[in-house]
């Protein structure tokens, strides 16, 4: 039978794009592979995915989308998107099982790859004797944090928002406990429980696929690979296959405008060589959770005019070169991808 891999992203468009890019990468190494992507929906606006899915399906025949039936949530008062997402994905397990069985009738399924929100489906993969993999689209640093999260839980009794201390997590700089992701700040919150369950599933994985390359996050990758983030359990194989960067054409927002007019700094930035300026800058959120145009302007001006900004630009150019090396023949990411695909023969 033909070979297949099944990818299972959580519903928001950003998660879907990351999984599609992973599928594209796998196809560059194994063109005969059939990539199947499971699609679910949530009871909130997670971004329109239909045009994107239609475009990928029309242009890449080897990528096939499977739309799972919509599940009905029990009555709930929560407005937290993370909790709603976990609830939907957990209730979708029987549907995932049916879809995996259906795909397995015509293909040899080498694995089910899930993102962090979809970890509950790993029990389904295990039941069907299909290797289950985690995919971390956000890099090795955040992976180290959630690798270590069960240890933090086991060694503390207060909520992180009340702990008022630095968390010393292997592989990353110390983090103020109150700066941890919002869903894990309250120990009594349902989202905290869900994040903890997902974090506990890492040691059971057949492998962790990370959107990074070794020289970009060498400390976090080394620490995680050596098992220091999971002191009392197994650390699965780690495959750094990045960088994966989705196409940005057609994605617009209002962050770079004021009263409908483009900010001078954004216009200037857009006129620069994009290859050297594609980087992320830390932004302060407002109470509503959004970043203001003024904040964007201040950060971009700092990048343009300050000595620190000059150093950031120089480092970015260096990382761009390192990324090309990692993705080239014999580079660390290409080797990791080969190891991942070769591992399928042993399962």
Written account of the structure:
The chain has 347 residues and is of the alpha/beta class. It is 44% helix and 13% strand. It has 14 helices and eleven strands. It has helices at residues 13-29, 50-59, 81-91, 93-104, 122-127, 140-154, 160-163, 190-200, 218-225, 264-270, 274-277, 293-305, 307-327, 332-343; strands at 2-8, 34-39, 63-67, 107-114, 132-136, 166-167, 175-176, 207-210, 238-240, 257-258, 261-262. The strands form three sheets. A seven-stranded parallel β-sheet has the order 3-2-1-4-5-8-9, with helices on both faces. A two-stranded antiparallel sheet has the order 6-7. The protein has a two-stranded antiparallel sheet with strand order 10-11. Strand 2 (34-39), helix 2 (50-59) and strand 3 form a beta-alpha-beta unit. The longest helix is centred in the C-terminal third of the chain and has 21 residues, at 307-327. The chain is globular and about 60 Å long. It starts with a strand and ends with a helix. Residues 249-260 have low confidence and may be disordered.
């Amino acid at each position: 039978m033909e070979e297949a891999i099944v990818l299972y992203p959580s519903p928001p468009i950003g998660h879907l794009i990351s999984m599609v890019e992973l599928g594209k990468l796998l196809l560059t190494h194994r063109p005969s592979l059939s990539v199947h992507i499971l699609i679910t929906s949530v009871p909130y606006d997670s971004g329109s995915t239909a045009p994107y899915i239609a475009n990928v399906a029309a242009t890449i025949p080897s990528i096939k989308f499977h739309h799972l039936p919509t599940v009905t949530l029990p009555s709930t008062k929560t407005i937290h998107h993370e909790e709603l997402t976990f609830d939907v994905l957990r209730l979708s397990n029987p549907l995932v099982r049916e879809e995996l069985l259906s795909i397995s009738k015509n293909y040899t399924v080498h694995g089910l790859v899930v993102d962090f929100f979809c970890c509950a489906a790993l029990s389904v993969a295990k039941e069907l004797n299909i290797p289950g993999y985690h995919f971390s689209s956000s890099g090795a640093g955040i992976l180290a944090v959630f690798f270590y999260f069960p240890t933090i839980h086991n060694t503390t009794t207060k909520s992180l928002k009340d702990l008022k201390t630095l968390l010393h997590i292997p592989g990353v700089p110390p983090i103020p406990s109150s700066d941890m992701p919002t869903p894990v700040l309250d120990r009594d919150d349902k989202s905290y429980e869900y994040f903890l369950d997902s974090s506990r599933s890492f040691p059971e994985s057949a492998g962790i696929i990370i959107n990074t390359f070794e020289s970009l996050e060498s400390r976090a990758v080394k620490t995680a690979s050596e098992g220091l983030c999971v002191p009392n359990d197994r650390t699965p194989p780690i495959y750094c296959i990045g960088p994966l960067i989705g196409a940005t054409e057609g994605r617009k927002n209002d962050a770079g405008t004021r009263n409908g007019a483009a900010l001078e700094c954004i216009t200037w930035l857009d006129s620069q060589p994009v290859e050297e300026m594609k980087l992320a800058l830390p932004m302060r959120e407002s109470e509503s959770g959004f970043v203001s145009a003024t904040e964007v302007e201040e950060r971009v001006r700092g990048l343009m005019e300050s000595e620190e900004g000059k150093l950031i630009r120089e480092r970015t150019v260096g990382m761009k070169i390192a990324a090309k090396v990692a993705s080239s023949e014999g580079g660390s990411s290409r080797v990791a991808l080969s190891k991942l695909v070769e591992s399928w023969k042993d399962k």
